[in-house]
Structure formats: C-alpha cells, structure tokens
Write a structure and sequence with these properties.
The complex is a heterotetramer of chains A (about 190), B (about 1000), C (about 425) and D (about 110). With about 190 residues, chain A is an alpha+beta fold. Chain A is built from four helices and eleven strands, in the order E-E-E-H-E-E-E-H-E-E-H-E-E-E-H. In chain A, about 20% of the residues lie in helices and about 35% in strands. In chain A, the strands form two sheets. Chain A has a six-stranded antiparallel sheet. A five-stranded antiparallel sheet of chain A has the order 4-5-6-3-7, with helices on one face. Chain D has two helices and six strands; from the N terminus they run E-E-E-H-E-E-E-H. Chain D has helices spanning about 35-40, 90-100; strands at about 5, 10-15, 20-25, 50-55, 65-70, 75-80. In chain D, the strands form two sheets. Chain D has a four-stranded antiparallel sheet with strand order 3-4-5-6. Chain D has a two-stranded antiparallel ribbon with strand order 1-2. Classes of the chains: A alpha+beta (about 190), B alpha+beta (about 1000), C alpha/beta (about 425), D alpha+beta (about 110). Chains B and C meet through strand 7, helix 3, helix 4, helix 14 and helix 15 of B and helix 1, helix 3, helix 4, helix 6 and helix 8 of C. Chain D: This is Sarcosine oxidase subunit delta.
Chain lengths: ~190, ~1000, ~425, ~110
C-alpha cells in the first residue's frame, strides 16, 4: 500500500550514536502454549526463524521471532506480508487455543547503532546493558524512561527498539537527548570509542 | 590577614591565573583553586552572614561540611543559590555573591539580631508573638518570613539539561581516598566489577596532606600508583566529581556526577544522576573534623585545623599570618608543623590535654613551636575577623591567663567518621569511647533483599584514623565485600602504612570544661543556624530530651550542612545536660542526600518536550495544523475543538455541533481502546466483566456494555463487537485501554486461570474515524467498495470490507444520535484515509469536530459519560441503566457489591435531565439544596449537576444530574445556588433532550 | 506552670533563660487511668486535651513507644486545608482548620499557624469540573473557598508557569484561610497543655498487649508494666493494624510509605501552598525559606519510613514543570512516613468490636491538617459514645458500601 | 527501590518495571456470600509488620502477575512464585521459616 507510512517516516539523528526510525515493520502478536507444535509451527513457518528461548529473539533483517512472555511471541515479517502471514498462522493454528493478531501498525521500531549504543540506552532503561549481561540473541521488555519498550541487539553495537506507535516521537526525542554528542558516559565503552 | 604564599600548593597551577568576581569585586585566583581558597588568597575572610543572628562568618572548613561559605553562583538561567565555596572549583569568569545580608555583607542591618541574641534563645518564637492574636498574621509572621531564607531566588528557567544513567555493578566504592582506592583494588583483584565514585576532582582524599608513607614511599606516590593500576583494570570504573549521594533499599545507590559545574561553558548535560544497583557497597567516605565549643568560635578567621592545613598545602594559601591552635588530639600538630614549614607564625598550640600528645607534638616542639598543655581558649576576640584570643586553663570556668594577639585560630575537636551512607538504609552505629565518636556497628548493617548486610564501611569511615589501620581495614573491606558475593580474594600483601605514634585524644565538648553561662552563650555548635551550647542546654532543661526534640526545638543540625559540623558536639552537650551516656541519647536519623543535589538532576531528562510521553494519533499533525485547541486525556491529546481564525473556542464548538447535526462531521476516535478477547471461554469471561450478557451477542453485531469494579462502581463503558464464535472486540474509553487490559489480565491470571481466553490490546493498530451526520452514508457510498445501506449494515452491527481501496472495519454505532459510522483502518494509512474523507466529503459539508462537540451531542441524547456522570461513587443503577444489567446472570464483577445495604438504598440519587427555567446554563458541579442543615451545620442537599452545556441544537442550557428520587419527580423545580450568590432554578426532565425515539441514528 | 509571653522571655533573658520550666513532665505510669490513649502524636495528644477541656476527664495517660510527636506529626508537609468535597470530610477538616485559628492562644504555645492560602491547580478540563463542584459543595458546607482564574493564580504565585505547554493552568480552587503550621509545635503545644491538666504523657513506653475481660477492655501491658483503664483509644498512625491485632480485630487498613523532601532555604518567593494533582506534587515555602515538597505514596506495604526514590523523581519533575525556577535549587533532605490507607482513603474514627476500645486511624495523607478536629470529635466519641463529626467515619461503612471517597474531585487528596 | 524476580521470565525486575497489586491469596466472595465474608474479601487486610504475601505485576515486562513473600519491616524478599495458586508453595514457606522461625500469616506458617 503506497500511502502507508510509519509513525516518523524514517526520521534519523546522528550524535553519540545513530538513531533512526526503521520505517514499516510487519509484526504479529501470537499468544498460545509455546510448547504446542502448532503454535511453534505458526511462528516459524511465516518468519523462517527458529523458536527463541526465554528472553531471547531470533531475528534476521525484517523477519524473526521474539519471546514476549511464557505464552506470547512477537513474530516479525516484512510489513506487506503481515496480513497474509496472520491468515496463514491462523490456518496453521486451527482449533488450538491461541490468538494471532496483526499489530504492525500499532508499533514503531528504532535502530540505535554505534560503539556508544549501550551507554546511550543505559540512560533510559533500568537494565544491565554490559556485554556480559546482554548481547545479540537476547530480548528484553522493560521501561524506557516513562513508556514500555522492548529491544534486542542485531550485533554488538546495534540495538533495535520497539515501542507503541503513539509515543514514537517521545521515544525518538528521548534517544536524541541521550545521544547528545557532548553527553558521552564511557561506562560500557571508553569515551573515545 | 589571609594571603597566597610563595611555597606549597599541590593542587594549583601558578602559571594559570583566573579572574572572578565576588560581590562585584574583580579578584584573581589560580587554576586548581576552589572558590574558598581563592577568596582566602584575596584576604576575603568575611564570606557570609549566619541565618538567625546575621553574625559575620568566615570559611570554617575545606570540604562538603562547610556551613558558612555559601554563595549565589552564576547569572540568569545558570544562577544557583547556596553553593559551597569550599567545593566549588574556580573557573574564569566565575561570579559569586554572598548571601543573607542587607544592604551589604560588610554592613548588615540584620546584625541587630546578634546584639539582641539574648532575647532570641532556642525556640523563643514558640513562646511569643501570640498577642494580640491578629498581630501574628499581620505583623510578626510577615516580618519573620521576610527575614527568613538564605540564598537568592533563581529568576529564570534553567538553561541546563540533565540526565540519568543506570549502572549495574558488583561493588560500588564511595570515596576515592586511600581507603576507597585500596578497597577498590582489593575487590577488583578478585575479578569483581567495581565502580568508584569520588566527589572531588582529586584522588587520595586528605592523606597526601596528612602525610605518612606507604610501603616506604610518600602517600601521594601510592595514590598515583594505585589509581594507575585501577585505571588499567577492565573491571574497574573510576569517576571523579561524582558523589555517592544516597544508599537505598536492595542495593540501590545514587551517584551525583557534576559534569560542567567546573566549566559552565562546556556543552552537554550539567549533572548526571547515576542510578546504581550494586551487590555490595563500600563506604570509604572518610571522617570530618569536629569544632571546639569555645566563645567566639564563629568569628571569621577561626577554622578547622585540618582545613587550615589543606589551604596551605593544597592551595598555597595562608589563612592567617599569626595563628593560635587549640586542640584535644594530636592531629592538630600536623597543622602546626605544616604552617611553620610554610613560614607562618604559630604563636601557640593550646592542648587541652595536661599530658599533651605524642610524636607530632615532639616534632612541633623541636621546630620551636610553643605548646601549652592543659590550656584552652576562653574566648576569641574580634568582630569581622579574629584579632586575638584569651587563653585559660581548660579545666576551669574561663578566667583569662593571658591575651594573645593573632589573626587566625585553628581548632581540632577530634574526628567523626562520615557514617551517613552507612546509615541511610538503616545501618546502626556504636559509640567508640576511646576516639569519642560513632562508628558503624558491624553487627547491625543495612540489609538487602537477601536479608544480608550490603554495606561495608572502610577506613576512617569505619573509625580507623591511623594510616596503617586505614589501609588494612580498607583492604579487608574490599575482600570481604567481594567474598560475600562469591568472588575469591587473592592473598595479596597489604600495603603497610607508616606514620607517627599518636597519643589518645581527650573528649572536649565545651572549652573550657566549666565555661560560664556568658561564655556558653557565645560558643557555637551549629554555625549556619546559630545554635549555641546554651540553646541545647535550654532544650534539655525544658524537657525536649529526645535528640529529635532537641534538634527540632533548637534547629541544631537542620542547616544546609545537615549537622556534619554540629551533631556530635550538640549530642554530647545534650547527653551531659541529661547526665546520660552519649550512646543512650542516640543520634538523629541520617537521611539522603549526603550533600544537597540539584532538583534538575533528580528530574533527569524529563523536561520540556520530553517531560512526559505525549501520545499522538495518526492524525495528530493534521489537528495541530488546523487549529486544534488541545485537551489532555491521560497522555493523549485530543482536539477540544478546531478553532478557526476570528472564532472563539465556544463559537467553534457551536459550529461543529450544528454542522454535524445538519451535515457531516468527522471525529478522530483513534484513542478509544480496542481489546481483542479470544478463546473458548471468551463469552463466559465477558459475562463476568460486563454487567450485560455478552455471550448471547451474535457475530456481526455490537452491544453497548458497562464494566464495574468488584466494589460495584462503574469503571468503564464501550461497545463490544462479536467478531466470530470465540472472538470479541471490546471498545474502552480513551483513558481506559491500558487500565482495562490490565484489569482483564488480572482476572484471567489470578482468578480464572483455567479459562481459555487470550486478550490483546490492538488500540494503536487502528486509526478510528467516526463519520457522523445526515450525509454520512452519502460520503461512504461515494467512496464505494462496500454496501453501507441500512439493510446491509443496520444500526449496532459491523462489517469488514473496503472503502476506496482501504481495508476497513465499519461499525454502525452512534454516540451522537445521528446516522454514524465508526471506521477503523490500519494506523499507517489513517492519515491518508482522513485526508480522503475530507476531500471527498467537501461536497457534503464535511467538518471535523472535537471532544466538546462530542460531549454536547451525547448529552443532548442523554448518553452518560464515564468521568462526568460517574466519579467512582456511582453504580449503573444510579444512572437508570438497568436495561444494561443482566438479570439472568447469577454473577458479574460488582454484582455482590451492588447488593450491599447502601447500594440498594432507595434514597440514592438517580440520573435525570435538568432544564433551567430561563434557558441559562447551570454551573458545573452545582448542588440542589434541600431544607435545613445537617448535624454538622452543613446545608442539606438533594442532588447535583453531573454535566451541563449550552445546546446549540435546542438553543438553551441542558444538563444531567443525580437527584434524590429524581425519576419520580419529573417536572419538579430544584434550586441550585451558584458560587457567586446567583441561584439557578431548574426543572427535572428526562435526560434525553433530542430525538427521544432514536429515529435519526437508526436510518 | 509559667505562661509564655514576650515579658517572660525578657525576664528570663536577664538570667540567661535558666528559669524556664519543663514543657511537660515525664512521670512513671500509675496502676490505673480512666482513659488510656496509645500514641502521643498530634491526634492522640489532641484527643487527651479535649477529653480534659471539654469533658473534664483528666485521669488520662498517653502512652508513646518512642518520643512524643515522633511519628507522622513531625514528618509531614504541614499543610492545613478543609476544601474537601464530601460533607463528612469537610465537616471534620473545617472543624480542625477553625480550631487551628485560635490554637496558639488556646494552648499558650505559638504553633505559627499561617493562613497564607491553599490553592489546588486545575490542569485538565476534568479537574476544572471537579474543583468547581468542590467549590459549590464547600459553599453549602460553610467552607470558604472560591474558584479563581489563571491570572489570579499567577498574581498569587508569581513563580508559577501557568501556560506550560503540557498542562496549562486552567484555574484553581482557592482556600484563603488554609495554610500551614509548625508541625512539631502542634504536638509540643498539646503535650504541654495536657501535662498542665495533670495528664500523664509516658514516653518510651511500648504497648505489648491489650487485656480484655468479657468482651471489654481491661488494660494494656507495656514495657513499663501493666496499666489498667476503663477506656482505651488507639491513635497510632501507621501501626494501627498491629495494635488492632493485639485487640483481636482486623482493620480495612494498609500501611504504606509517604515521602516528602525540602530544598535548601531561599528567600521568600511563594506565599501560598500550591497543590498540582494532575502531576502529583504539592509545594509550600517554610518560614525558614525551604521549599517543602510532597508527592504520592508507595503502592506496597512498608514500615521502613523509607520510600522508593522514583516517587521523589516524579514529584520533582512535575513541580519543575509547574515552577521552572526550582530546577536550580537543591534537595536538602528527603524522608518518609508510614501512613494508614483505608479502603476508601478516608479515616476511621469509630467504636470497635471490643467494648470501650476506640480507634482513630486511616488518615492517609490527611493526618496533620485534621489534628484538632480529629481530637475534638474523637474525645466526644470516647466520652459520650457518639459524635456527629465521627459518625460517618465508622468501621461498618465498608460493610454497607457507604464510602467517603475524596479522590472524586482530586487525583490525590493531600 | 525493590528488586523482585519475575517467576515467569526470570528477570530481576526493579520496582519501576513492576506494579504492586496488594495482598495475595484473597478468596473471592461473590453473590450469595455473607456481608462479613464479602467485606473481608474486599477490605480486611493483613497488614503485618513482618512477613507478608503480596501480588505484583511485571507491568513493564512480560506482563504477568506473580506473588512475592516479603518482610514489610526489612524489605527482605523470601521468594516469588506464580499467581496461579491459592496458597504459598512449600519451598517458599520453608524459606521463610529458615529466616523467621515461628512466623504466621493467616492460616499459613
């Protein structure tokens, strides 16, 4: 759909790190018994990714599966495929007690990249972001300043952050402030780095 | 006089001169100076006025405990009052102003209080200013208030920014002196992750000034080496200009990092508030020297002995040329020696101990310093600066033995460990008889989530005052802390400290020991608040025996230094007055922060645009560009009305209502909550949540539902649509989505966990637009794509389909009484669809309307509004909503509550419509009066207005209200007094004012 | 006991104040009292005072496990107001406010009652409606309040930011005769007056048990031995649940931490008390010049007198938004108190399941302002068995669903 | 500033990720219950100075409700466990007994 636009239309900012809104991203909330094979199949078949363990995410580009809670997954697919994916999942799930719903438009996604990414995010989230405690493959739902958010790392210096669409501007402004060029911390990464 | 000297000054750079101003006077200092050292270098001994008596005050200390040298710093948006000169790093262009005097520091009218001080003892204000009564309010208090306060008021909005930082570490070390450094090293060597905070810009604390050697080399070398070693370790973070401000439950600690205070021109945040979670916290916060309580101990030029030493050694500043030193312990001899070495004349060391001290005394003696044992200061002479002292026997009443002319006095009353951070979270103290101070009680530490102690004191903060003991104690603390959280301490060798032998100190709480009343009346304990020995004694005499009583009655320890200087001395005087041992009298509670921290830092990044999240719908920008007068609803903003140029808000609302009723209106309804409820037991679940029967709703149909709390009160309402056999979509109010979602999850997880129901909040997935008015169908038919005729899509049904190529879900529901479609489209296309509706709707007179038009139209129809008709005390039965309360169900949340006697009371007020006789608009929240008054003399009432508007449709004021037996009293006239004396008369009518049979919405 | 006056001070000054007597005695407990009040905070002492003053009952002991006035009386933000919405609340708080007007003279102890005015800001349309409703109610309750415009707000509080981008000030509910008082002095003044009537205030005396005989109270066991009484009043904010347990009944009460903080003192800049409920903060300036700031309570049971720091952050944020200049002040001290929260957030002044045991608790955040009214009404209840001021606050209201809900008009009811 | 471990996602969540939910193990009384039972269910609360059982929601996290056993006087946490139970599991009660011998809470000990 040509006239579909993400909350901030791909806005970006360069400071201590690069902050960018990732644009449209397909997302499906899947609730069900994660040990149920149909539920797992529904998630893996549309995303092409393996089932993640507790507090983990398997993501490649625009496709992936994130562990949200013991009975909830967030399935990532390209935006344009979300509708079809939900139908396919629903079919796969059949009579199994579950819920698959398209939430692609309900969220905004940001990318935070650069050596200081951990330091910048640590200004906003009450989470241990040291490399020993958090790295690629892990997934965390938490509080980002005053709103709920979730994030994972694409690589050692890149976070992807998901929040609700309505607060996209707030989150972007927060990340900009935290990434102010003169606000380096040097806790997780030396100030020079 | 005080002045810069040619030698010493380990922290200053004599090649880098700095210019600053004090009370407008241009002065010069050096890179590395503190404002205090620079002022002293300029012979500025008078730096402020005390709070109560406006007595002249000079610099007393050299660190965080300074009670006197408080300044207004900076200009405009960067002005800040009450800054301590002793912890303010000097920078070029610094502007400082002294405080609490008028017209000037030198000549202060308030000083008259000092002359009358005898009439203002502790708590005098509790005993007077009561007659005549009116005088308190009209005369006394205004005068007292004008005299009150300390620093000037900032005038402009803060020009700086602030931020937080969440840090997680195994061990947090607070204090970067030799103890902190050694503790950090011992801990870090086990592999534990260590964070070290030091409040000053320098490592090593006071050890480099106090001297001694570590493993044979000077302390300074040890400090440099250790800092270098720590910096090289991956698992260690060192921060200077970062104060450990507070210790809280479960290992939470606050670090207060001052990033630009020393260089305000630097970009970036001014302060960073570290929110630290540590498994263990080591407090290596050192100790603070105590003053001696002798008459005139507050005259400018009287200084703590250690501070005087600091100014000489660190900054190359002589606080005086001819100095008398009074002490009860050996440490003061270090000052004597340092001064002498710097070429300053030391006239006397008056040692209250008859037997004097140890090595240091001998050393001083050998340098030719005169030492008088068993001697004390009877009183200090001088007004704005010291001119001399009277010397007396310490064990006496103060009869002068000789007068000594001098221009500075150093005093040392012994040392008190800084136990604040140990105590913040409940750590208890024990009294150390030999050193006469409180130290942490190792058996009663503050305990964490696991019930174990999580704070470990180290070095002087633990009561160890000798260099060697400090190092070994700190090393042990570091290892203990690491071991406690599962790290293996190495058996590394402990650095050996070496220093002179010291003789035991002798507690001196009053000097001389039996000082006369007149002398005690001039011996200060709390300098800033002007609390004297005599005040504490008075409090005890009057029965304010608890240390908390004394503190509050005399204001001892309540100044900006929070008793760092005064508490122990005051406590000892109190104990003495009560003939009780000091530990029995106890201490006051230590509360965070250790020293004051900026409100800006506490607020963090949350200011201006990011003060709070502002939730935006996909159409937010359009509203903003088209005159939206915003109304906050939770964190959302909704247009109250779209105001056009030349229009008042009221005009706009009237126009919007009229246009919607006559033509076509658009409402951004995206903020309404949308919850998907799915599962085999979904119907059963909703039957419990709503007062209505939802399980009987047919797929494709909608039903208005009410939700109550278990306590019976209405908490939300909205339209439920059944999507398929086991799926429902529940609409909530704008504020309600998250609340009701949580409410549903709570019951599913905590009560009915065996029911098969899943809930998902899809509120933000959709932009929802209400297309309302006689022309609504015309517009949708023009867009084309689905059949929106009455037969294909009747009232209170919904359909999925397409409109002009948009995937839509269309609900035939109406909150206005008009023909109305609520259309949900994916949020990412919401703005596009909105634009299209405006474009294509132009020919039908389309016009967006805001929340106020919405409210008026619903009121004209007699529809209730959660938050207006309900206020948390209203049940559905009050609102005539029986039709929405299922009789068939034997249970729903709130049903049992609604059976309680007060809920079934026939005298509960019930919903009716109200029409003023003259067509005017009833005031918001007005009450209908009844005859007489109640037992408490309050006028009886029989009803109240819940919402009231001017209805452009009916051309008159309309209102809804709750009235005693209202529905049975149609036509009766009630009186509603306004708050302006004007009374309104209104007739009880049906709450449905417009289209009573609902023909318009059902076409 | 000598009266306090300017003349007394002058007289004492000449002899360096060596002649002042004890403000209150600290006797050893007798074996029996007509009435025992547990808790020597403001409410307990005020109850004892009015038992003596209004009913001539002076064979009274007030037992305190710590030091008198050491609980919430000395830990609050000293605000006094009566602009409540519901009739029973308005009645007791206005009674208290009215008594405060003359209390210094009545007790011969200057409490520094300062009717500088209390304003509650309306920053949403919902609050506007709520406060206009309160103004109407107050007018009929005999509580003098008025609805004022943003301009008037600005005149009264020059440092306020009325056109804040997020929550502009839309007006305020203004009570001109609301204000503050010196909190410790309230306890001390009552204590001195009680002592003067021959009552016993026994500090450092903890109650360890409550003795009953045939469904009636017989006395209490304390760390200073057993003491008998005919009537017993429980007035121990924060610890009511624990004592109720001793007496054998449960209360609809939970104890949570409520925090406050003060800034360093600055010159007078705000001569009224301002409450901003939308953003959950309230602030006044003490006679010392400190900005006294309070906010919301913790949401979990807690007896530590230490709250969670994030509440302090939320409050400070909110107040900076409303009063931008305080951003450059510093927090001098923060502390917490333990408050009783009842099922409807309104107090309980009531008989109990045990005959002759009476309970006064659940003041939540409203304790200090109500002290004289609470003491007045509770003394009447204890002396006569009934009090119009207390009637609506009885324990049974929860069973009947007869709540007194003040959150109706204001988010937080401080 | 409490830290509680969410038994569902295993995260050591700090207080600002959590929402308190009051006393745990309340037995719901609906229509047909006596006034006393209903009153106690809604209002009568254990309010001990010591061992307490309470409900929390990992609101800014996995969203699950859970129970915590905590000392209200020291804030010591004895353990957390899922909400789908009507009484504290044995291991939690044992953990409390180990730290607070002789504790009682309602019918539990």
């Amino acid at each position: 759909m040509s006239d579909a636009v993400s909350a901030l239309k791909g806005a970006s900012f360069d400071g201590l790190v690069r902050v960018e809104e990732c644009g449209l991203q397909g997302m499906i909330t899947l609730r069900g018994d994660l040990s149920n094979r149909a539920v797992a199949k529904a998630a893996t078949s549309v995303s092409g990714q393996k089932m993640p363990g507790q507090n983990r995410a398997n993501v490649a580009g625009e496709s992936g599966i994130c562990w949200m809670s013991p009975d909830e997954l967030l399935v990532l697919v390209p935006y344009s495929e979300a509708g079809a994916a939900v139908e396919k999942m629903t079919a796969t799930l059949g009579k199994v007690h579950s819920l698959a719903v398209n939430v692609s438009d309900a969220r905004a996604v940001f990318r935070l990249s650069g050596p200081a990414a951990r330091d910048v995010l640590a200004k906003l989230c009450p989470v241990d972001l040291s490399p020993e405690a958090f790295g690629p493959g892990q997934f965390r739902r938490t509080r980002l300043a005053q709103v709920p958010a979730a994030f994972w790392m694409d690589d050692a210096e890149t976070f992807r952050i998901v929040c609700f669409r309505s607060v996209a501007q707030y989150v972007f402004d927060l990340l900009k402030a935290a990434a102010h060029p003169a606000a380096a911390v040097g806790y997780h990464t030396s100030v020079g780095g | 006089m005080s002045a810069r000297i040619a030698t010493q000054g380990r922290l200053i750079d004599r090649s880098k001169p700095i210019t600053f101003t004090f009370n407008g006077k241009r002065l010069h200092g050096l890179q590395g100076d503190t404002l205090a050292s620079a002022l002293l270098a300029n012979d500025q001994m008078l730096v402020g006025r005390s709070y109560k008596y406006h007595r002249p005050r000079g610099i007393l200390a050299s660190g965080a405990e300074e009670p006197n040298a408080l300044m207004g710093l900076g200009e405009g948006g960067k002005f800040e009052p009450n800054q301590r000169a002793t912890t303010t790093e000097l920078y070029d262009g610094l502007t400082a102003r002294s405080q609490n005097h008028w017209p000037s520091l030198e000549f202060d009218v308030g000083q008259v209080n000092a002359a009358l001080s005898r009439f203002f003892p502790a708590g005098f204000y509790y005993k007077t200013f009561m007659w005549p009564k009116s005088f308190w309010e009209k005369v006394y208090e205004p005068v007292i208030r004008q005299a009150a306060g300390l620093g000037a008021v900032p005038k402009e909005r803060d020009a700086d920014t602030y931020e937080y930082f969440y840090a997680f570490t195994d061990i947090l070390v607070i204090g970067g002196g030799v103890a902190g450094l050694q503790a950090a090293k011992a801990a870090a060597q086990t592999g534990a992750k260590v964070l070290v905070l030091e409040q000053t810009p320098h490592w090593g604390g006071r050890a480099p000034v106090d001297g001694g050697t570590v493993d044979g080399e000077p302390v300074e070398a040890f400090v440099e080496r250790t800092v270098a070693e720590l910096s090289a370790m991956e698992n260690v973070t060192l921060r200077t200009r970062a104060m450990g401000a507070g210790v809280y439950d479960h290992g939470y600690a606050l670090g207060y990092e001052r990033l630009t205070d020393h260089a305000p021109l630097l970009a970036g945040p001014r302060h960073r508030l570290w929110r630290i979670r540590a498994k263990r916290i080591i407090t290596a916060t050192g100790a603070i020297e105590r003053t001696l309580s002798f008459a005139g101990n507050d005259i400018p030029g009287v200084m703590l002995a250690s501070a005087m030493r600091d100014y000489v050694v660190n900054y190359g500043v002589a606080p005086g040329q001819r100095v008398v030193i009074a002490t009860n312990n050996d440490d003061a001899y270090r000052t004597a020696i340092a001064l002498k070495q710097a070429g300053i004349e030391v006239l006397r060391v008056l040692d209250a101990r008859n037997s004097g001290g140890g090595d240091l005394m001998r050393q001083a003696h050998e340098m030719g310093i005169r030492i008088d044992c068993g001697r004390a200061i009877a009183r200090v002479k001088g007004a704005k600066r010291v001119t001399g002292v009277s010397v007396c026997a310490h064990d006496g009443e103060g009869g002068a033995l000789e007068e000594v002319a001098c221009d500075a006095v150093a005093m040392s009353g012994g040392w008190s460990p800084v136990v604040h951070l140990w105590s913040h979270c409940g750590g208890k103290l024990i009294w150390d008889e030999t050193q006469a101070h409180f130290r942490p009680d190792p058996n009663r530490p503050p305990t964490g989530a696991d019930g174990e102690g999580f704070v470990v004191p180290a070095g002087a903060a633990n009561g160890e005052l000798m260099l060697d003991a400090v190092l070994s104690d700190a090393d042990a603390a570091g290892k203990l802390a690491a071991k406690a959280i599962g790290f293996k301490p190495k058996r590394g060798k402990v650095p050996q400290g070496a220093g002179p032998e010291e003789a035991p100190m002798m507690p001196v709480w009053l000097m001389p020991a039996r000082a006369t009343t007149a002398l005690r009346n001039k011996a200060f304990l709390d300098y800033q608040n002007d609390v004297k020995v005599s005040d504490v004694q008075l409090a005890a005499q009057e029965g304010y025996e608890s240390v908390e009583h004394t503190k509050r009655y005399t204001t001892l320890g309540m100044a900006t230094d929070q008793g760092k200087i005064a508490n122990i001395n005051g406590l000892a005087i109190l104990a003495d007055s009560l003939n009780a041992p000091i530990p029995q009298v106890g201490t006051t509670t230590f509360r965070p922060p250790y020293t004051p921290i900026s409100m800006g830092a506490i607020a963090g990044e949350a200011r201006g645009e990011i003060f709070q999240p502002l939730r935006r719908t996909p159409m937010h920008d359009w509203h903003d560009e088209n005159g939206a007068d915003w109304e906050p609803v939770g964190h959302w903003r909704r247009p109250y009305a779209y105001v056009r140029p030349g229009e008042s808000v009221h005009d706009a609302v009237m126009r919007e209502v009229k246009n919607t009723r006559e033509k076509l209106g658009l409402l951004d309804a995206s903020t309404l909550g949308k919850l998907i409820v799915k599962g085999r037991d979904a119907g059963k679940f909703l039957d419990m949540l709503y007062t209505n029967m939802m399980s009987t709703l047919k797929p494709g149909k909608c039903r208005y539902g009410l939700m109550c709390s278990e306590n019976g009160f209405l908490i939300d309402d909205g339209v439920v649509a059944r999507i398929d056999e086991d799926t429902f979509l529940c609409h909530t109010t704008t504020g309600g989505a998250d609340r009701i979602h949580a409410h549903m999850e709570e019951w599913l997880q905590c009560e009915w966990w065996d029911w098969q129901v899943y809930v998902a909040n899809v509120t933000e997935q959709f932009a929802q637009i209400a297309v309302v008015g006689p022309n609504a169908r015309k517009l949708l038919e023009k867009l084309g794509g689905m059949d929106v005729s009455k037969d294909a899509l009747p009232f209170m049904e919904w359909r999925d389909g397409q409109l002009a190529g948009f995937d839509v879900r269309v609900y035939r529901i109406s909150f206005s009484g008009e023909l109305s479609y609520e259309i949900a489209v994916p949020a990412c296309r919401g703005r596009a669809f909105w634009d299209l509706l405006l474009k294509e709707g132009a020919e039908f007179g389309v016009m967006p309307y805001g929340t106020e038009a919405l409210h008026i139209m619903r009121a004209e129809k007699g529809f209730i509004m959660i938050g207006d008709e309900t206020d948390g005390t209203v049940i559905p039965q009050d609102l005539g909503l029986h039709w929405a309360i299922s009789k068939k169900k034997d249970d729903y949340l709130g049903k049992r509550a609604q059976q309680r006697s007060h809920m079934t009371d026939p005298n509960r007020w019930k919903l009716v419509g109200l029409e003023t006789l003259d067509g005017s608009v009833l005031p918001d929240g007005a009450y209908a009066v009844a005859e007489g008054v109640n037992e408490n003399g309050q006028r009886n009432v029989q009803g109240r207005v819940t919402s009231t508007y001017f209805s452009p449709t009916l051309g008159r004021g309309i209102a809804m209200g709750l009235v005693l037996h209202g529905p049975d009293r149609m036509g009766e006239v009630l009186e509603f007094p306004g708050t302006d004396g004007k009374a309104f008369k209104a007739k009880i009518v049906s709450p449905v004012f417009y289209d009573k049979d609902g023909e318009k919405q059902n076409v | 006991m000598k009266r306090y006056s300017a003349f007394a001070i002058a007289r004492e000054a000449l002899r360096y104040h060596t002649g002042w007597e004890r403000a209150w005695t600290s006797p050893e407990p007798k074996r029996h009292y007509d009435v025992i009040i547990i808790g020597a905070g403001g409410h307990g002492l005020a109850t004892a005072y009015y038992l003596g003053k209004n009913y001539g009952i002076t064979n009274v002991a007030v037992l305190e496990k710590g030091w008198l006035g050491g609980g919430n009386t000395g830990r609050n933000t000293t605000i006094i107001r009566s602009n409540y919405l519901q009739d029973p609340s308005a009645a007791i708080y206005e009674k208290a406010r009215a008594l405060y007007e003359d209390l210094s003279q009545d007790l011969n102890y200057n409490l520094m009652f300062s009717p500088r005015g209390v304003m509650m800001l309306a920053q949403t349309h919902h609050e506007v409606r709520g406060y206009k409703r309160t103004a109407h109610a107050n007018a009929l309750q005999g509580v003098k309040t008025e609805w004022i415009s943003p301009q008037r707000v600005k005149e009264l509080v020059p440092i306020i930011n009325i056109d804040g981008p997020r929550y502009p000030v839309l007006g305020a509910l203004w009570q001109e005769r609301g204000g503050t008082a010196r909190h410790d002095a309230v306890a001390w003044g009552y204590a001195r007056a009680c002592s003067r009537m021959g009552m016993h205030i026994i500090q450092k005396c903890e109650v360890t048990g409550i003795r009953r005989e045939g469904g009636k109270v017989a006395g209490v066991d304390t760390t200073k031995g057993p003491i008998d009484c005919n009537k017993l009043g429980l007035v121990v904010a924060g610890h009511s649940g624990v004592l109720a347990q001793m007496a054998g009944f449960r209360l609809p009460v939970e104890s949570v931490a409520l925090q406050a903080l003060v800034s360093e003192p600055i010159k007078p800049c705000m001569d009224v008390v301002v409450m901003a409920n939308t953003v959950h903060g309230y602030m006044s300036q003490s006679d010392k010049g400190e900005m006294v700031i309070g906010g919301g309570a913790d949401g979990f049971n807690n007896y530590t007198q230490r709250g969670s720091f994030h509440h302090i952050e939320e409050t400070v944020r909110a107040l900076i938004e409303t009063f931008p200049i305080i951003s450059r002040l510093k927090m001098l001290r923060q502390w917490g108190g333990i408050v009783d929260m009842t099922g409807d957030r309104s107090p309980i002044l009531s008989k109990t399941p045990v005959e002759n045991i009476f309970i006064n608790c659940g003041w939540g955040t409203g304790g200090f302002k109500s002290i004289p009214g609470s003491g007045w009404g509770f003394a009447q209840l204890m002396a006569t068995g009934d009090s119009p001021l207390c009637r609506a606050f009885s324990l049974d209201r929860f069973k009947e669903g007869r709540f007194i809900d003040e959150s109706v008009a204001a988010g937080v009811a401080h | 500033m409490l830290i509680l471990q969410c038994p569902y996602c295993g995260i050591d969540a700090e207080e600002t990720e959590l929402a308190p939910g009051g006393e745990a193990h309340l037995k719901r009384h609906g229509p047909g219950s006596s006034d006393e039972d209903f009153h106690d269910y809604l209002f009568a609360r254990e309010n001990p100075r010591g061992v307490h059982f309470e409900r929390w929601r990992h609101a800014n996290g996995c969203g699950k409700w859970f129970h915590a056993a905590r000392d209200t006087a020291t804030l010591e946490v004895f353990g957390t466990y899922p909400a789908q139970t009507t009484e504290p599991p044995k291991e939690i009660r044992d953990a409390i007994t180990a730290r607070r011998p002789g504790w009682r809470w309602r019918e539990f000990s």
